[in-house]
Amino acid sequence: MLAATALMTVANNILWISFASVNTQAADYYDKSGADIDLMTTISFIIGIPVCAASTWIVNNMGLRSASTSSSSPTTSWTTTDM
Question: Is the pTM of this model over 0.85?
């Protein structure tokens, strides 16, 4: 289970790296600097490490069903309250 979670995290980080080629276009579109766009990617890498460890612990101790239910609850509540 740990190996699967680690592979999914690596795949997610590779996806973020693929957005580096559109840094200039994103900075122009959002009227931000390239450093601001790069900062978002850096923050996602830094946050991803503890979140990966926490999610692995939750899946191992509570089970996949409980973890997926608890992770989808905030998303559901945010989308219903924003309307």
Answer: no
